[in-house]
Amino acid sequence: MVTAPILSVDEARHLISLCEAGRLYAVADWIEAGKSLVVPPSLKPTPLRIATTRRFHSLVELLLRHESRADVKTATMMYAIKRDSLDIAHLAIEYGADPRVVDCFRVLMAARSVRAATDIIELGVDVTSDSPFTHAFTISPSKKILGIARQCIKNRPECSDSIREQLNVALRWYCAQGKERWITPLLSAGADPAGEGPTLTELGRKREAYGWNAYFHAVRSGKLAVLKLLQPSKLAYDQLSELLYYASWRVNFRMIEYLVNLGASVNRNSGGEFSALVSCMSFLDHDEYRDEASALAQDHGMPMPWRSPQSRLAVRLLVERGAKLEANRRLFPQLQRILVGLPAEISHEILHLLIGFGACPDDLGCALLKTPALRRRDPRALEPLEQLLSLPLAQRQRRIRAFLRRQSQHTDGDS
Fold it and tell me: How far apart are CA 249 and CA 264, in angstroms?
């Protein structure tokens, strides 16, 4: 291809002045006369840059039509995208600019409409490298970006899996942040809450496998409203039970109650020291926020606790729903440490629940009652528990339920 000659400085300045004034017909006459469009490198900006900056669409098209240098067309496209002029960028691509060098993230951020972006992206823009949809949506979330994602999934099937995974990353990030606003729109756009992988902050890190999905991050955030938006009722029984186990790590009573009511198993890993019941018991001596403690206690008819209302309520719920402990050598000393570290009235309450509902085997309950540190506190307070342990399970349950009803009535009277 023959390269056009470079104009003299005076001719180049005259051409630039015509472009600055938007004189389309004068520039057309210039081209008809066979004059070059190449200005000296010392003169900036170029005619195409000026026409793009001022959004003279017809002038840009005229200059592109008679521009022979592919690199200039590509530079015009990139500059137009930077200036949020996607219509001019699209025009540059039509006249030979290379769309493969376009930064998809910039297109998404600059797009004023779904169609303006998809018209460019569908010409071959790389939508898979550097997770452009994830970054664009987490920086500036909008329905427009989700609309572009839906159109690209539909029109570029070879990239659909990558785009869906980018939406999954964004969904996991919003769930981890506990932000409800964009959960449902992301799901509607094609994000899969069961998809496992990194969140936004984990992108690019070297790790063999990410086993956490959006459900797990929602549980971890402690926001029940976020978890409900993901509709965990659609999950299989085993998956629900696993979520319940995760929820017990944070001892969020509302979330534990919700998952149990959905049908999650309260006895996942019950044979070891990593069951939901043991996890909740491990937090019995942790301080909680007093205002939240008061509200939970009053809602469930418990005397105002000064420690761990969520843990106590969770333990009570789990044993009422059939949670079981199994005696093993590693679990027994752990339970002893938990009970000894609690105030006497709370440790007695927990023992009442465990023994009354048959949550622990009789031999484990008997061994716990013989713990020296518990007996030194108040041996007489343990006598009702020993009597309870000697009764059949059905009779124990009737007694403990009556005890809990009296406790609830006592709380109502005090309030």
Answer: 15
Candidates 123, 235, 223; CA nearest to 179 is 223
pTM of the model: 0.76
pLDDT at position 404:
75
At 53, list the tokens. Answer: 């900056």
What is the average pLDDT value for the chain, to the nearest integer? 83
* Helix (H/G/I), strand (E/B), else coil: 6: strand
The backbone region for 222, taken as left when phi is positive above 0, alpha when psi lies in -120 to 50, beta otherwise, is left
What's the average model confidence in pLDDT over 393-408? Answer: 80
Contacts of 284 (CB under 8 A, 6+ apart): 307, 308, 311, 312, 315, 338, 341, 342, 346, 350
Non-local CB neighbours of 259 within 8 Å, separated by 6+ positions:
232, 240, 243, 244, 247
Residues 6+ apart with CB under 8 A from 245: 268, 269, 274, 275, 276, 279
Distance CA 148, CA 116 (A): 9
What is each CA distance from 406 to 307, 319, 354, in whole angstroms?
Answer: 21, 18, 18
Nearest of 328, 396, 315, 324 to residue 367 by alpha carbon: 328
Structure tokens at 294: 């008061």
93: region left, alpha or beta (phi > 0 left; psi from -120 to 50 alpha): alpha
CA angle 46–51–56, rounded 5-degree value? 170
Give CATH for domain 1-102: 1.25.40.20
Supply the pLDDT for residue 3.
Answer: 65
Alpha-carbon span 186 to 165, nearest angstrom? 11
What span, in angstroms and rounded, lies between the C-alpha atoms of 25 and 172? Answer: 55
Residue ranges of domains in the chain: 1-102, 128-234, 236-415
Q: Alpha helix (H) ranges present in 95-131? A: 104-110, 114-121
Please tell me the chain's helix, strand, coil percentages from 3-state DSSP, rounded to the nearest 5: 65, 0, 35
Distance between CA atoms of 259 and 256, rounded to whole angstroms?
A: 5
- Residue 99 carries which DSSP code? G
CA distances from 138 to 57, 126, 131, 148, 271 (A): 32, 19, 11, 15, 42
Q: How many CB atoms lie within 10 A of CB 89?
A: 29
